[in-house]
Write a structure and sequence with these properties.
This protein has about 500 residues and is of the alpha/beta class. The chain folds into 2 domains: about 290 residues, 3-Layer(bba) Sandwich (FAD/NAD(P)-binding domain); about 170 residues, no CATH class. The protein contains 15 helices and 21 strands. The chain has a 5-stranded parallel β-sheet with strand order 3-2-1-7-19, with helices on one face. Strands 8-17-9-10-13 form a 5-stranded parallel β-sheet, covered by helices on one side. The protein starts with 11 loop residues before the first strand and ends with a helix. Bound molecules: NADP nicotinamide-adenine-dinucleotide phosphate. NADP nicotinamide-adenine-dinucleotide phosphate binds next to α4. The site of NADP nicotinamide-adenine-dinucleotide phosphate has 24 residues, from α4. This is NAD(P)/FAD-dependent oxidoreductase. Keywords: FAD, Flavoprotein, Oxidoreductase. It holds the Pfam family FMO-like. InterPro entries: FAD-bind_Monooxygenase_sf (IPR051209), FAD/NAD-bd_sf (IPR036188), Flavin_mOase-like (IPR020946).
């Protein structure tokens, strides 16, 4: 509902209709905004859950935690839901809150320029628009990374990136190769080991694997969730999960903490207990600390890689050939299908969109060294431009929905300053950003992410690009904006009118 004295006509454009864009739409309508458009590059909502449809795709965060706080879901089928079910949840929520009516599909924003106190946008198909506020809900992992492997063009079989799955490619009984053992590659191996005629998993760097259970919810449990909203709420706010998030974020923030030692003990025990063959066990044993890369949460990877059809290949890939992959030991691994589970360009964020702030400042120049923003939300001299899950946001093995909701609550308080007329432009000050970045970079050195491994968490200079403190601190900081960190201005045009 619109609060008195809050202008409902402030024009807000949201970029992206994934998890955080849908969230923005819902929250804006709920707060009484009636001049909102969401631009979405694809023809459907869902973001990463729309893009990724590979076999075995699973959300490795518990389903009831990977749920909007205001939209509990009694129907989750199991503890770790399949990707298609998560996608269905976002589509259903979009319809329920009538967010589809705000979305312009197949419109990729190409240009976004702050001129004369407003944002001017243009999409790839030439649609132009203007807005007082832009919310960038463009996601992080959406530019698939194709490795620069020799011979990539020579392979005659089916070559797929995990985020661009072709469901017409036959898999059953085939010779399948999977390059990469991040969260994606591991899920693919679990799904395909028993279906393939032969599956070869090409591992460049071993991964620590956290054991998890993935039980189905029974019909009785689901009925109980439907009948008892309080019970469903308790599932969402499950104390064990919340305690795990606190423990996990405390662990990653301090590489010498007892919490990280606990995680290390669990994953080591998992490796020792789960892998029978000592040779395979050594191949699977990482030479860096647990949680340095994003931890793999898997109920069945070790089982899958020990399946008679599966083979772990640890020799470096020399080249792709017409028939498969040749490793440095000279072996040619013949394949029908080769999957690149090789991740994403995680530093692209809104780009390649051209974003220009005050006085022609180009975001590409501002971010030349590394993408950065005050509290991951606001960029100096880019007024009324806010990001969800932006650079230096918390990342890890927990719900990014919760992260986006907390960021939204923070942004909503800034938007109220615009709606109330307290100011017409608001952006973090350079001083606030510099202080935040200095503290963040210092803290980042103590995180487990910086303890000596390579991962997409690291920026171009090898510094962890994420929130380096624990979750409690994130929650506290997001609760109320420190307005001394923001420059609020009343644009000349408005001053003129007022005067
Ligand atoms: P990723 O974690 O970046 O892993 C990429 C993999 O490809 C790594 O194993 C990497 O090896 C390997 N690789 C890259 N280039 C290579 C090359 N030239 N030769 C050999 N191997 C190469 O990507 P991802 O697995 O797609 O996961 C990305 C993120 O997506 C995850 O961390 C997670 O945040 C998200 N995700 C989440 C879920 C979920 O359930 N919530 C599921 C899937 C993905 P190195 O380790 O040696 O670099």
């Amino acid at each position: 509902m619109t609060q008195p004295n809050l202008n409902p006509d402030l024009r807000v454009v949201v970029l992206g209709a994934g998890m955080s864009g849908i969230l923005s739409g819902i929250k804006l309508l709920e707060a009484g905004y009636r001049n909102v458009t969401i631009y979405e590059k694809a023809s459907r909502v869902g973001g990463t859950w729309r893009e990724n449809t590979y076999p075995g795709l699973t959300c490795d965060v518990p389903s009831h935690a990977y749920t909007y706080s205001f939209e509990p879901n009694a129907e989750w089928s199991r503890q770790l839901p399949p990707g298609a079910e998560v996608q269905g949840y976002f589509e259903q929520t979009t319809r329920k809150y009538k967010i589809d009516e705000l979305i312009r599909f197949n419109q990729e924003a190409k240009r976004c320029e702050f001129v004369g106190g407003r944002w001017h946008l243009e999409t790839a198909s030439g649609v132009r628009d203007e807005a007082d506020v832009v919310i960038a809900a463009t996601g992080v992992l959406h530019h698939p990374r194709t490795p620069n492997l020799p011979g990539l063009k020579d392979f005659r079989g089916d070559l797929l990136h995990s985020a661009r799955w072709d469901h017409t490619v036959p898999l059953d009984g085939k010779r399948i190769g999977i390059i990469g053992n991040g969260s994606t590659g591991v899920q693919l191996v679990s799904a395909l080991a028993s279906r393939a005629g032969k599956l070869k998993h090409f591992q460049r760097t071993a991964q620590w694997v956290m054991p998890v259970e993935n039980p189905f919810f029974t019909e009785e449990q689901k009925q109980a969730f439907r009948d008892d909203p309080a019970l469903l709420k308790r599932m969402q706010n499950d104390e064990t999960y919340l305690a795990n998030v606190e423990r996990f974020t405390t662990a990653v923030a301090d590489a010498s903490s007892p919490e990280i030692a606990m995680i290390e003990a669990i994953v080591l025990d998992n490796l020792e207990r789960s892998v029978q063959d000592p040779v395979l066990r050594e191949k699977l044993r990482p030479n860096y600390r647990a949680a340095c890369k994003r931890l793999i949460f898997s109920p069945d990877y070790y089982q899958a890689i020990q399946h008679p059809n599966a083979e772990l290949v640890v020799d470096d890939i020399e080249t792709l050939t017409e028939r498969g992959v040749r490793t440095r030991d000279g072996v040619e691994h013949e394949l029908d299908v080769l999957v690149l589970a090789t991740g994403f360009h995680a530093d692209r964020f809104m780009r390649p969109m051209q974003i220009t702030g005050r006085d022609g400042r180009r975001l590409d120049d501002v971010w030349a060294k590394r993408p950065h923003a005050y509290l991951a939300i606001s960029i100096p001299e880019f007024p009324n431009f806010f990001m969800l899950n932006g650079p230096t946001s918390p990342v890890g093995n927990f719900s990014l929905i919760d992260v986006a909701e907390k960021q939204w609550d923070y942004i909503a308080q800034l938007l109220n300053l615009l709606r109330s007329g307290a100011c017409t432009e608001i952006a973090a000050t350079q001083q606030a950003l510099d202080a935040y970045e200095a503290a963040r970079l210092a803290a980042a050195k103590n995180t487990i992410f910086a303890s000596g491994c390579n991962s997409w968490y690291l920026d171009g200079e090898g510094v962890p690009a994420s929130w380096p403190w624990n979750y409690a601190r994130f929650r506290d900081v997001m609760a109320t904006p420190d307005l001394s960190a923001f420059e609020q201005t009343v644009s000349r045009a408005v001053q003129g009118v007022a005067g």
